[in-house]
Amino acid sequence: MADNKSPKAERWEALEELGKQVGAKEKRKIKARRETQRTVWFGLGMFGLVGWSVAMPTVVGAVLGIWIDSRWPSRISWTLTLLFVGIILGCLNAWFWVKRQGGHE
Fold first, then answer.
1. HSE-up of 81 (CA within 13 Å, CB side)?
2. pLDDT per residue as tens digits for the range 20-60
3. Within a 10 A sphere around the Cβ of 78, how many other Cβ atoms?
4. Whole domain around residue 24: which residue ranges?
5. Given this model, what pLDDT does residue 70 score?
6. Are residues 61 and 96 in the same domain?
7. How far apart are CA 34 and CA 28, in angstroms?
C-alpha cells in the first residue's frame, strides 16, 4: 500500500533526520576536542608516517626511472622525472594523512 503522509509529516521527518545528523556530528566534535592531549608517541608516529609516505614514492620513482633509463635510453631522464613525480605524490600523500589525523576532514 502507498504511504499517504501529509507534506507536514514528511517535513517533520526530514527535520528529525537532519537533527540526528547534526547531533552525531556535534558528538564527534566534542569527542575530538576532549582528545586534544596528544602524547609524544602520537607525534613520533605522525612524524614517521609523514616520512615514510614521502620517502617510499620517491624511492620507487627513482628506482623505476633508473630501470627505464637502463632499458630504453632516451633524451629524457626518466630517473629525474619519476623522482620528482614520486616527491609530489609523496607530499600529497603526507598532506592527506596529516589532514586526516588533524581532524579537519
1. 11
2. 888 888 888 887 777 666 677 777 777 787 888 899 999 99
3. 21
4. 1-37
5. 93
6. yes
7. 10
User: Residue 31: what pLDDT?
Assistant: 77
Report whether 85 contacts 61 (CB < 8 A): yes
What's this model's pTM, rounded to 2 decimal places?
Answer: 0.55
- Selection from 103, 27, 89 nearest residue 60 by Cα: 89
Residues 64 and 80 in one domain: yes
The span from the CA of 8 to the CA of 34, in Å, is 39
- DSSP string covering 64-77, please? HHHHHHHHS--SS-
Q: Which whole-number Å values give the CA distances from 47 to 42, 52, 55, 67, 75, in the listed order?
A: 9, 9, 12, 30, 38
